[in-house]
Design brief:
The chain has helices spanning 13-29, 33-63, 68-96, 101-108, 110-121, 128-146, 159-166, 171-187, 189-209, 215-222, 230-258, 284-298, 300-311, 349-366, 380-393, 398-402, 406-436, 442-456, 466-469, 478-482, 488-506, 508-520, 527-533, 544-561; strands at 150-152, 155-157, 315-318, 328-332, 337-344. By secondary structure, the protein is mainly α. It has two domains: 3-108; 109-562, Neurolysin, domain 3. The chain has a three-stranded mixed beta sheet, with helices on both faces. A two-stranded antiparallel ribbon has the order 1-2. A hairpin with a 2-residue loop joins strand 1 and strand 2 (155-157). Helix 2 (33-63) packs antiparallel against helix 3.
Length: 563
Amino acid sequence: MKFQDYKYERPNYGEIKKSFLDLVNKIKTADNYKDQHTYIMELNNTRKHIETMSTLASIRNSINTADEFYEKETQYWDEYGPLYTELNSDFYKVIVNSKFKENIINDFSEQFYKICEYSLKSFSPEIIPDLQEENKLMSRYTKLLASAKINFNNEELNLSGLYKYMLSQDRKEREESSKAYYNYFEIHEEEFDEIYDNLVKVRHDMAKKLGFNNFTELGYIRMDRTDYNPEMVVKLRKQVLEYIVPLCNKLYEKQAKRLSLDKLTYIDENLEFLDGNATIKGDSSYIIENGIKMYNELSTETKEFFDFMLENDLMDLETKHNKSAGGYCIYIPDYKAPFIFSNFNGTSEDMDVLTHEAGHAFQLFMSRYIDMQEINFPTLDSCEIHSMSMEFITYPWMDIFFKEDTDKYKFAHLTSAIKFLPYGVVVDEFQHIIYDNPYMSKAERKAVWRDLEKKYLPHRDYDDNKILEKGCWFFKQGHIFKDPFYYIDYVLAQICAFQFLKKMEENKENGWEDYLRICKVGGTESFLQIVKTGNLISPFDDNCIEFIIKNLEMNIEKFEKNL
Protein backbone atom coordinates (compact mmCIF):
# COMPACT_ATOMS: atom_id res chain seq x y z
CA MET A 1 0.00 0.00 0.00
CA LYS A 2 1.28 3.45 -0.94
CA PHE A 3 1.86 6.14 1.70
CA GLN A 4 -0.86 8.40 0.30
CA ASP A 5 -3.36 5.56 0.87
CA TYR A 6 -2.46 5.18 4.54
CA LYS A 7 -5.68 6.19 6.25
CA TYR A 8 -5.60 8.91 8.89
CA GLU A 9 -8.41 9.21 11.39
CA ARG A 10 -8.25 11.17 14.60
CA PRO A 11 -8.63 8.74 17.51
CA ASN A 12 -11.46 9.26 19.97
CA TYR A 13 -9.57 9.75 23.20
CA GLY A 14 -12.55 8.88 25.43
CA GLU A 15 -13.14 5.54 23.70
CA ILE A 16 -9.43 4.72 23.55
CA LYS A 17 -8.97 5.51 27.24
CA LYS A 18 -11.80 3.17 28.28
CA SER A 19 -10.55 0.15 26.30
CA PHE A 20 -6.90 0.95 27.11
CA LEU A 21 -7.43 1.01 30.88
CA ASP A 22 -9.59 -2.12 30.68
CA LEU A 23 -6.67 -3.99 29.09
CA VAL A 24 -4.20 -2.47 31.57
CA ASN A 25 -6.34 -3.94 34.35
CA LYS A 26 -6.40 -7.36 32.65
CA ILE A 27 -2.59 -7.29 32.39
CA LYS A 28 -2.38 -6.32 36.05
CA THR A 29 -4.69 -9.07 37.30
CA ALA A 30 -3.57 -11.91 35.01
CA ASP A 31 -2.61 -14.90 37.14
CA ASN A 32 -0.39 -16.54 34.52
CA TYR A 33 2.09 -15.20 31.99
CA LYS A 34 0.36 -16.73 28.96
CA ASP A 35 -2.74 -14.60 29.61
CA GLN A 36 -0.69 -11.56 30.54
CA HIS A 37 1.29 -11.83 27.30
CA THR A 38 -1.96 -12.08 25.28
CA TYR A 39 -3.30 -8.88 26.89
CA ILE A 40 0.05 -7.08 26.45
CA MET A 41 -0.02 -7.82 22.71
CA GLU A 42 -3.69 -6.84 22.43
CA LEU A 43 -2.97 -3.52 24.11
CA ASN A 44 0.10 -3.11 21.95
CA ASN A 45 -2.11 -3.15 18.84
CA THR A 46 -3.99 -0.15 20.27
CA ARG A 47 -0.73 1.60 21.14
CA LYS A 48 0.62 1.01 17.62
CA HIS A 49 -2.54 2.48 16.09
CA ILE A 50 -2.30 5.62 18.26
CA GLU A 51 1.37 5.99 17.27
CA THR A 52 0.50 5.48 13.60
CA MET A 53 -2.15 8.21 13.62
CA SER A 54 0.13 10.64 15.46
CA THR A 55 2.97 9.90 13.01
CA LEU A 56 0.80 10.30 9.89
CA ALA A 57 -0.45 13.68 11.14
CA SER A 58 3.11 14.78 11.89
CA ILE A 59 4.50 13.69 8.49
CA ARG A 60 1.69 15.26 6.50
CA ASN A 61 1.91 18.49 8.47
CA SER A 62 5.68 18.68 7.88
CA ILE A 63 5.19 18.08 4.13
CA ASN A 64 2.84 21.08 4.00
CA THR A 65 2.65 23.27 7.10
CA ALA A 66 -0.03 25.37 5.35
CA ASP A 67 -2.45 22.42 5.10
CA GLU A 68 -5.22 23.53 7.45
CA PHE A 69 -6.54 20.02 8.14
CA TYR A 70 -3.20 18.63 9.32
CA GLU A 71 -2.36 21.86 11.14
CA LYS A 72 -5.50 21.28 13.22
CA GLU A 73 -4.54 17.64 13.70
CA THR A 74 -1.08 18.71 14.88
CA GLN A 75 -2.79 21.00 17.38
CA TYR A 76 -4.88 18.01 18.51
CA TRP A 77 -1.75 15.91 19.05
CA ASP A 78 0.01 18.79 20.83
CA GLU A 79 -2.88 18.81 23.29
CA TYR A 80 -3.75 15.11 23.50
CA GLY A 81 -0.27 13.63 23.04
CA PRO A 82 0.52 14.05 26.75
CA LEU A 83 -2.81 12.39 27.63
CA TYR A 84 -1.87 9.37 25.53
CA THR A 85 1.53 9.47 27.27
CA GLU A 86 -0.36 9.23 30.55
CA LEU A 87 -2.13 6.09 29.30
CA ASN A 88 1.22 4.63 28.27
CA SER A 89 2.47 5.42 31.75
CA ASP A 90 -0.29 3.20 33.17
CA PHE A 91 0.92 0.44 30.83
CA TYR A 92 4.53 0.90 32.00
CA LYS A 93 3.44 0.66 35.64
CA VAL A 94 1.89 -2.79 35.18
CA ILE A 95 4.94 -3.95 33.19
CA VAL A 96 7.40 -2.78 35.86
CA ASN A 97 5.27 -4.23 38.67
CA SER A 98 4.54 -7.53 36.91
CA LYS A 99 5.31 -10.69 38.86
CA PHE A 100 6.41 -12.16 35.52
CA LYS A 101 9.38 -9.80 35.11
CA GLU A 102 11.76 -12.52 33.85
CA ASN A 103 9.28 -13.63 31.18
CA ILE A 104 8.80 -10.04 30.00
CA ILE A 105 12.58 -9.51 29.79
CA ASN A 106 12.97 -12.81 27.89
CA ASP A 107 10.26 -11.85 25.38
CA PHE A 108 10.91 -8.12 24.97
CA SER A 109 14.50 -7.55 26.26
CA GLU A 110 15.98 -6.01 29.38
CA GLN A 111 16.31 -2.73 27.47
CA PHE A 112 12.51 -2.63 26.99
CA TYR A 113 12.04 -3.15 30.73
CA LYS A 114 14.52 -0.36 31.56
CA ILE A 115 12.81 2.02 29.12
CA CYS A 116 9.50 1.35 30.90
CA GLU A 117 11.21 2.20 34.20
CA TYR A 118 12.74 5.38 32.77
CA SER A 119 9.42 6.42 31.23
CA LEU A 120 7.80 6.25 34.65
CA LYS A 121 10.54 8.44 36.10
CA SER A 122 10.01 11.05 33.38
CA PHE A 123 6.23 11.33 33.60
CA SER A 124 3.50 12.24 36.06
CA PRO A 125 -0.06 13.45 35.37
CA GLU A 126 1.01 16.62 37.18
CA ILE A 127 3.19 17.65 34.23
CA ILE A 128 0.56 17.15 31.49
CA PRO A 129 -0.11 20.92 31.15
CA ASP A 130 3.66 21.50 30.93
CA LEU A 131 4.03 18.85 28.21
CA GLN A 132 1.17 20.43 26.29
CA GLU A 133 2.86 23.82 26.55
CA GLU A 134 6.20 22.32 25.47
CA ASN A 135 4.53 20.80 22.39
CA LYS A 136 2.90 24.09 21.44
CA LEU A 137 6.19 25.97 21.76
CA MET A 138 8.00 23.40 19.61
CA SER A 139 5.27 23.59 16.95
CA ARG A 140 5.56 27.38 17.02
CA TYR A 141 9.31 27.10 16.44
CA THR A 142 8.81 24.67 13.52
CA LYS A 143 6.29 26.99 11.90
CA LEU A 144 8.53 30.04 12.40
CA LEU A 145 11.34 28.30 10.49
CA ALA A 146 9.08 26.84 7.81
CA SER A 147 7.23 30.09 7.10
CA ALA A 148 10.37 31.96 5.99
CA LYS A 149 9.84 33.60 2.60
CA ILE A 150 13.00 35.34 1.48
CA ASN A 151 13.31 37.26 -1.78
CA PHE A 152 16.67 36.52 -3.31
CA ASN A 153 17.91 36.39 -6.90
CA ASN A 154 14.40 37.14 -8.19
CA GLU A 155 13.03 34.10 -6.35
CA GLU A 156 10.94 33.66 -3.24
CA LEU A 157 12.82 31.07 -1.21
CA ASN A 158 12.54 29.26 2.10
CA LEU A 159 15.64 28.78 4.28
CA SER A 160 16.55 25.45 2.63
CA GLY A 161 16.20 26.98 -0.83
CA LEU A 162 18.77 29.68 0.02
CA TYR A 163 21.43 27.15 0.91
CA LYS A 164 22.70 26.47 -2.62
CA TYR A 165 23.50 30.19 -3.02
CA MET A 166 25.41 30.10 0.28
CA LEU A 167 27.73 27.55 -1.39
CA SER A 168 28.29 29.67 -4.50
CA GLN A 169 31.78 29.97 -5.99
CA ASP A 170 31.07 33.70 -6.24
CA ARG A 171 32.05 35.12 -2.83
CA LYS A 172 29.73 38.11 -3.23
CA GLU A 173 26.78 35.78 -3.80
CA ARG A 174 27.82 33.72 -0.76
CA GLU A 175 27.96 36.90 1.30
CA GLU A 176 24.62 38.27 0.11
CA SER A 177 22.76 34.96 0.44
CA SER A 178 24.25 34.39 3.92
CA LYS A 179 23.14 37.86 4.98
CA ALA A 180 19.64 37.21 3.60
CA TYR A 181 19.55 33.89 5.49
CA TYR A 182 20.66 35.25 8.85
CA ASN A 183 18.65 38.43 8.43
CA TYR A 184 15.55 36.27 8.91
CA PHE A 185 16.85 35.27 12.35
CA GLU A 186 17.71 38.89 13.16
CA ILE A 187 14.21 40.07 12.24
CA HIS A 188 12.69 37.33 14.41
CA GLU A 189 15.32 37.41 17.18
CA GLU A 190 12.84 38.32 19.90
CA GLU A 191 10.48 35.53 18.91
CA PHE A 192 13.23 32.88 18.82
CA ASP A 193 14.49 34.18 22.19
CA GLU A 194 11.02 34.08 23.69
CA ILE A 195 10.26 30.55 22.44
CA TYR A 196 13.54 29.20 23.82
CA ASP A 197 13.21 31.06 27.11
CA ASN A 198 9.75 29.56 27.61
CA LEU A 199 10.98 26.09 26.65
CA VAL A 200 13.85 26.22 29.15
CA LYS A 201 11.52 27.34 31.92
CA VAL A 202 8.72 24.85 31.23
CA ARG A 203 11.27 22.02 31.08
CA HIS A 204 12.85 23.12 34.36
CA ASP A 205 9.41 23.27 35.98
CA MET A 206 8.67 19.72 34.79
CA ALA A 207 11.96 18.48 36.22
CA LYS A 208 11.28 20.02 39.62
CA LYS A 209 7.75 18.57 39.74
CA LEU A 210 9.19 15.12 39.00
CA GLY A 211 11.72 15.42 41.83
CA PHE A 212 14.85 16.21 39.81
CA ASN A 213 17.26 19.04 40.60
CA ASN A 214 17.10 20.35 37.04
CA PHE A 215 16.17 19.42 33.47
CA THR A 216 19.66 18.04 32.77
CA GLU A 217 18.86 15.06 35.01
CA LEU A 218 15.40 14.65 33.47
CA GLY A 219 16.82 15.12 29.96
CA TYR A 220 19.12 12.10 30.34
CA ILE A 221 16.20 10.01 31.57
CA ARG A 222 14.00 11.17 28.66
CA MET A 223 16.79 10.12 26.27
CA ASP A 224 16.82 6.64 27.88
CA ARG A 225 20.54 6.86 28.59
CA THR A 226 20.74 3.71 30.66
CA ASP A 227 24.50 3.14 30.57
CA TYR A 228 26.34 6.49 30.56
CA ASN A 229 26.14 9.80 32.41
CA PRO A 230 27.14 13.50 32.14
CA GLU A 231 30.55 12.85 33.73
CA MET A 232 31.42 10.39 30.94
CA VAL A 233 30.28 12.94 28.36
CA VAL A 234 32.55 15.60 29.92
CA LYS A 235 35.52 13.23 29.37
CA LEU A 236 34.49 12.76 25.74
CA ARG A 237 34.29 16.52 25.18
CA LYS A 238 37.84 16.83 26.56
CA GLN A 239 39.04 14.20 24.04
CA VAL A 240 37.45 16.19 21.21
CA LEU A 241 39.13 19.38 22.46
CA GLU A 242 42.52 17.66 22.76
CA TYR A 243 42.63 15.66 19.51
CA ILE A 244 39.96 16.84 17.07
CA VAL A 245 40.04 20.64 17.47
CA PRO A 246 43.76 20.87 16.46
CA LEU A 247 43.09 18.64 13.42
CA CYS A 248 40.14 20.85 12.45
CA ASN A 249 42.26 24.00 12.77
CA LYS A 250 44.71 22.49 10.24
CA LEU A 251 41.82 21.59 7.92
CA TYR A 252 40.46 25.16 8.04
CA GLU A 253 43.93 26.61 7.34
CA LYS A 254 44.28 24.40 4.25
CA GLN A 255 40.75 25.31 3.19
CA ALA A 256 41.56 29.04 3.31
CA LYS A 257 44.60 28.40 1.08
CA ARG A 258 42.52 26.35 -1.39
CA LEU A 259 40.04 29.23 -1.58
CA SER A 260 42.86 31.80 -1.97
CA LEU A 261 41.68 33.67 1.12
CA ASP A 262 43.76 35.47 3.73
CA LYS A 263 41.19 34.46 6.31
CA LEU A 264 38.22 32.11 6.32
CA THR A 265 34.94 33.63 7.52
CA TYR A 266 31.60 32.00 8.27
CA ILE A 267 30.41 32.52 4.68
CA ASP A 268 33.33 30.41 3.39
CA GLU A 269 33.24 27.46 5.77
CA ASN A 270 30.92 25.30 3.69
CA LEU A 271 32.76 25.88 0.41
CA GLU A 272 35.70 23.53 0.10
CA PHE A 273 36.97 24.35 -3.39
CA LEU A 274 37.45 27.51 -5.44
CA ASP A 275 35.90 25.87 -8.48
CA GLY A 276 32.91 24.82 -6.38
CA ASN A 277 32.01 21.88 -4.19
CA ALA A 278 31.35 18.45 -5.67
CA THR A 279 28.00 18.30 -7.44
CA ILE A 280 25.71 15.40 -8.20
CA LYS A 281 25.58 15.03 -11.98
CA GLY A 282 21.80 15.02 -12.25
CA ASP A 283 18.47 15.93 -10.65
CA SER A 284 16.45 14.16 -7.96
CA SER A 285 15.26 11.42 -10.36
CA TYR A 286 18.91 10.79 -11.29
CA ILE A 287 19.74 10.43 -7.58
CA ILE A 288 16.94 7.90 -7.06
CA GLU A 289 17.79 5.98 -10.23
CA ASN A 290 21.40 5.58 -9.12
CA GLY A 291 20.28 4.97 -5.54
CA ILE A 292 18.45 1.88 -6.84
CA LYS A 293 21.66 0.65 -8.49
CA MET A 294 23.70 1.35 -5.34
CA TYR A 295 21.39 -0.42 -2.90
CA ASN A 296 20.83 -3.30 -5.36
CA GLU A 297 24.57 -3.94 -5.49
CA LEU A 298 25.36 -3.34 -1.82
CA SER A 299 23.45 -6.39 -0.53
CA THR A 300 20.29 -8.45 -0.99
CA GLU A 301 18.93 -6.86 2.19
CA THR A 302 19.43 -3.28 0.97
CA LYS A 303 17.87 -4.16 -2.42
CA GLU A 304 14.73 -5.50 -0.74
CA PHE A 305 14.62 -2.43 1.52
CA PHE A 306 14.98 0.22 -1.19
CA ASP A 307 12.46 -1.54 -3.45
CA PHE A 308 9.97 -1.44 -0.56
CA MET A 309 10.54 2.29 0.01
CA LEU A 310 10.01 3.11 -3.68
CA GLU A 311 7.04 0.82 -4.27
CA ASN A 312 5.18 2.35 -1.33
CA ASP A 313 6.11 6.02 -1.92
CA LEU A 314 7.79 6.24 1.47
CA MET A 315 10.08 9.16 0.62
CA ASP A 316 9.26 12.88 0.24
CA LEU A 317 12.54 14.41 -0.83
CA GLU A 318 12.26 17.71 -2.71
CA THR A 319 12.04 21.12 -1.03
CA LYS A 320 8.94 23.23 -1.62
CA HIS A 321 7.06 26.17 -0.12
CA ASN A 322 5.59 25.59 3.34
CA LYS A 323 7.53 22.37 3.79
CA SER A 324 9.23 21.98 7.17
CA ALA A 325 12.99 22.43 7.21
CA GLY A 326 15.47 19.60 7.65
CA GLY A 327 15.24 15.87 7.18
CA TYR A 328 14.20 12.88 9.26
CA CYS A 329 13.27 9.22 9.22
CA ILE A 330 10.30 7.96 11.18
CA TYR A 331 8.47 4.64 11.60
CA ILE A 332 4.77 3.99 10.91
CA PRO A 333 4.05 0.90 13.04
CA ASP A 334 0.68 -0.26 11.64
CA TYR A 335 2.29 -0.59 8.21
CA LYS A 336 5.75 -1.66 9.44
CA ALA A 337 7.02 1.14 7.21
CA PRO A 338 9.90 3.60 7.62
CA PHE A 339 9.36 7.04 6.04
CA ILE A 340 12.09 9.41 4.81
CA PHE A 341 11.50 13.18 4.74
CA SER A 342 14.02 15.68 3.38
CA ASN A 343 14.59 18.91 1.46
CA PHE A 344 16.74 18.26 -1.61
CA ASN A 345 18.41 21.58 -2.43
CA GLY A 346 20.66 20.79 -5.38
CA THR A 347 23.85 20.36 -3.34
CA SER A 348 25.97 17.35 -2.41
CA GLU A 349 24.00 17.23 0.85
CA ASP A 350 21.22 15.55 -1.14
CA MET A 351 23.53 12.53 -1.29
CA ASP A 352 24.05 12.63 2.45
CA VAL A 353 20.27 12.46 2.92
CA LEU A 354 19.97 9.44 0.62
CA THR A 355 22.58 7.59 2.66
CA HIS A 356 22.02 8.99 6.18
CA GLU A 357 18.23 8.81 6.40
CA ALA A 358 18.31 5.55 4.44
CA GLY A 359 20.63 4.17 7.14
CA HIS A 360 17.93 4.87 9.73
CA ALA A 361 15.23 3.45 7.48
CA PHE A 362 17.26 0.32 6.70
CA GLN A 363 17.74 -0.39 10.41
CA LEU A 364 13.98 -0.08 10.95
CA PHE A 365 13.32 -2.32 7.95
CA MET A 366 15.69 -4.99 9.30
CA SER A 367 14.06 -4.95 12.74
CA ARG A 368 10.40 -4.88 11.67
CA TYR A 369 9.95 -8.18 13.48
CA ILE A 370 10.11 -6.18 16.73
CA ASP A 371 6.56 -5.35 17.69
CA MET A 372 7.09 -2.85 20.51
CA GLN A 373 7.38 0.86 19.69
CA GLU A 374 9.85 1.44 22.54
CA ILE A 375 12.41 -0.82 20.85
CA ASN A 376 11.78 -0.47 17.09
CA PHE A 377 14.40 2.27 17.06
CA PRO A 378 17.31 1.94 19.45
CA THR A 379 18.06 4.94 21.64
CA LEU A 380 19.10 7.94 19.56
CA ASP A 381 22.82 7.62 20.26
CA SER A 382 22.72 4.10 18.80
CA CYS A 383 20.42 4.77 15.87
CA GLU A 384 22.73 7.48 14.57
CA ILE A 385 25.43 4.80 14.19
CA HIS A 386 23.32 3.16 11.48
CA SER A 387 22.73 6.41 9.59
CA MET A 388 26.24 7.86 9.81
CA SER A 389 27.91 4.54 9.03
CA MET A 390 25.78 4.08 5.90
CA GLU A 391 27.29 7.33 4.59
CA PHE A 392 30.72 5.64 4.63
CA ILE A 393 29.58 2.15 3.65
CA THR A 394 28.27 3.56 0.35
CA TYR A 395 31.58 5.29 -0.55
CA PRO A 396 32.38 2.73 -3.31
CA TRP A 397 29.29 3.90 -5.26
CA MET A 398 29.88 7.65 -5.05
CA ASP A 399 31.44 7.72 -8.53
CA ILE A 400 28.06 6.97 -10.16
CA PHE A 401 26.63 10.13 -8.57
CA PHE A 402 29.62 12.49 -8.69
CA LYS A 403 31.72 11.14 -11.61
CA GLU A 404 34.84 13.36 -11.88
CA ASP A 405 33.95 15.03 -8.56
CA THR A 406 34.06 11.78 -6.56
CA ASP A 407 37.27 12.45 -4.61
CA LYS A 408 36.13 16.02 -4.05
CA TYR A 409 32.92 14.68 -2.50
CA LYS A 410 34.66 12.09 -0.33
CA PHE A 411 37.22 14.64 0.88
CA ALA A 412 34.55 17.22 1.74
CA HIS A 413 32.26 14.60 3.29
CA LEU A 414 34.96 13.10 5.50
CA THR A 415 36.45 16.42 6.59
CA SER A 416 33.01 17.89 7.32
CA ALA A 417 32.24 14.83 9.48
CA ILE A 418 35.47 15.47 11.40
CA LYS A 419 34.72 19.20 11.67
CA PHE A 420 31.27 18.34 12.98
CA LEU A 421 32.61 16.85 16.22
CA PRO A 422 33.66 20.17 17.85
CA TYR A 423 30.34 21.75 16.80
CA GLY A 424 28.50 18.76 18.26
CA VAL A 425 30.14 19.24 21.64
CA VAL A 426 29.34 22.98 21.53
CA VAL A 427 25.64 22.11 21.22
CA ASP A 428 25.92 19.56 24.03
CA GLU A 429 27.90 21.68 26.50
CA PHE A 430 25.63 24.66 25.77
CA GLN A 431 22.57 22.67 26.80
CA HIS A 432 24.22 21.38 29.97
CA ILE A 433 25.06 24.95 30.99
CA ILE A 434 21.62 26.33 30.06
CA TYR A 435 19.60 23.66 31.88
CA ASP A 436 21.91 23.73 34.90
CA ASN A 437 21.24 27.50 35.04
CA PRO A 438 17.63 27.90 33.86
CA TYR A 439 17.20 31.50 35.01
CA MET A 440 19.93 32.97 32.83
CA SER A 441 18.85 35.99 30.82
CA LYS A 442 18.41 35.67 27.06
CA ALA A 443 21.57 37.73 26.53
CA GLU A 444 23.56 35.53 28.93
CA ARG A 445 22.51 32.41 27.02
CA LYS A 446 23.71 33.89 23.76
CA ALA A 447 27.01 34.87 25.40
CA VAL A 448 27.46 31.27 26.60
CA TRP A 449 26.96 30.05 23.04
CA ARG A 450 29.52 32.50 21.67
CA ASP A 451 32.07 31.60 24.38
CA LEU A 452 31.74 27.90 23.55
CA GLU A 453 32.26 28.65 19.87
CA LYS A 454 35.50 30.40 20.77
CA LYS A 455 36.58 27.36 22.83
CA TYR A 456 35.80 24.56 20.36
CA LEU A 457 35.60 26.48 17.05
CA PRO A 458 38.46 28.98 17.48
CA HIS A 459 38.74 29.48 13.70
CA ARG A 460 35.20 30.85 13.39
CA ASP A 461 35.07 34.46 12.15
CA TYR A 462 31.68 36.15 11.83
CA ASP A 463 33.19 39.19 10.15
CA ASP A 464 30.56 41.96 10.44
CA ASN A 465 27.53 39.72 11.11
CA LYS A 466 26.21 41.20 14.35
CA ILE A 467 23.44 38.64 14.97
CA LEU A 468 25.95 35.77 14.89
CA GLU A 469 28.63 37.64 16.82
CA LYS A 470 25.96 38.16 19.48
CA GLY A 471 25.58 34.36 19.81
CA CYS A 472 22.40 33.63 17.85
CA TRP A 473 23.68 30.82 15.62
CA PHE A 474 21.85 28.31 17.81
CA PHE A 475 18.45 29.65 16.68
CA LYS A 476 18.80 27.55 13.51
CA GLN A 477 19.69 24.37 15.41
CA GLY A 478 16.33 22.64 15.72
CA HIS A 479 17.52 19.98 18.16
CA ILE A 480 18.22 22.65 20.79
CA PHE A 481 14.58 23.68 20.67
CA LYS A 482 12.80 20.41 19.91
CA ASP A 483 15.08 17.58 21.08
CA PRO A 484 17.01 18.74 24.14
CA PHE A 485 20.23 16.81 24.77
CA TYR A 486 19.85 14.99 21.44
CA TYR A 487 23.18 16.03 19.94
CA ILE A 488 26.05 14.35 21.71
CA ASP A 489 24.37 11.27 20.21
CA TYR A 490 25.67 12.40 16.81
CA VAL A 491 29.17 12.79 18.22
CA LEU A 492 29.12 9.32 19.77
CA ALA A 493 27.72 7.80 16.58
CA GLN A 494 30.14 9.67 14.33
CA ILE A 495 33.06 8.22 16.26
CA CYS A 496 31.53 4.74 15.77
CA ALA A 497 30.89 5.47 12.07
CA PHE A 498 34.57 6.37 11.59
CA GLN A 499 35.32 2.88 12.88
CA PHE A 500 32.97 1.38 10.27
CA LEU A 501 34.86 3.30 7.58
CA LYS A 502 38.03 1.58 8.80
CA LYS A 503 36.29 -1.82 9.01
CA MET A 504 34.91 -1.64 5.46
CA GLU A 505 38.35 -0.70 4.12
CA GLU A 506 40.09 -3.55 5.93
CA ASN A 507 37.51 -6.34 5.45
CA LYS A 508 34.27 -5.45 3.67
CA GLU A 509 32.48 -8.74 4.42
CA ASN A 510 33.21 -8.65 8.16
CA GLY A 511 32.41 -4.94 8.34
CA TRP A 512 29.04 -5.45 6.64
CA GLU A 513 28.19 -8.38 8.94
CA ASP A 514 28.91 -6.21 11.99
CA TYR A 515 26.69 -3.46 10.54
CA LEU A 516 23.87 -5.85 9.68
CA ARG A 517 24.02 -7.32 13.19
CA ILE A 518 23.49 -3.95 14.89
CA CYS A 519 20.61 -3.18 12.51
CA LYS A 520 18.82 -6.44 13.31
CA VAL A 521 18.90 -5.95 17.09
CA GLY A 522 16.84 -2.77 16.68
CA GLY A 523 16.35 -1.19 20.07
CA THR A 524 16.64 -4.36 22.15
CA GLU A 525 20.11 -3.32 23.35
CA SER A 526 21.51 -0.21 25.04
CA PHE A 527 24.14 2.04 23.44
CA LEU A 528 27.19 0.35 24.96
CA GLN A 529 25.71 -3.11 24.26
CA ILE A 530 25.23 -2.18 20.57
CA VAL A 531 28.81 -0.88 20.46
CA LYS A 532 29.90 -4.32 21.70
CA THR A 533 27.59 -6.17 19.26
CA GLY A 534 29.15 -4.21 16.39
CA ASN A 535 32.70 -5.02 17.59
CA LEU A 536 33.36 -1.30 18.08
CA ILE A 537 35.52 0.57 20.60
CA SER A 538 33.44 2.67 23.00
CA PRO A 539 33.73 6.43 22.32
CA PHE A 540 34.13 6.81 26.09
CA ASP A 541 37.33 4.76 26.00
CA ASP A 542 40.24 7.12 26.69
CA ASN A 543 42.11 5.87 23.62
CA CYS A 544 39.22 5.73 21.16
CA ILE A 545 39.70 9.04 19.33
CA GLU A 546 43.46 8.57 19.31
CA PHE A 547 42.85 5.13 17.70
CA ILE A 548 40.67 6.43 14.84
CA ILE A 549 42.52 9.67 14.09
CA LYS A 550 45.39 7.98 12.22
CA ASN A 551 43.00 6.33 9.76
CA LEU A 552 41.15 9.62 9.27
CA GLU A 553 44.38 11.47 8.48
CA MET A 554 45.40 8.70 6.07
CA ASN A 555 42.09 8.96 4.17
CA ILE A 556 42.27 12.76 4.03
CA GLU A 557 45.75 12.49 2.53
CA LYS A 558 44.56 9.88 0.00
CA PHE A 559 41.61 12.00 -1.20
CA GLU A 560 43.73 15.18 -1.23
CA LYS A 561 46.18 13.64 -3.71
CA ASN A 562 43.41 13.29 -6.30
CA LEU A 563 41.90 16.76 -5.91
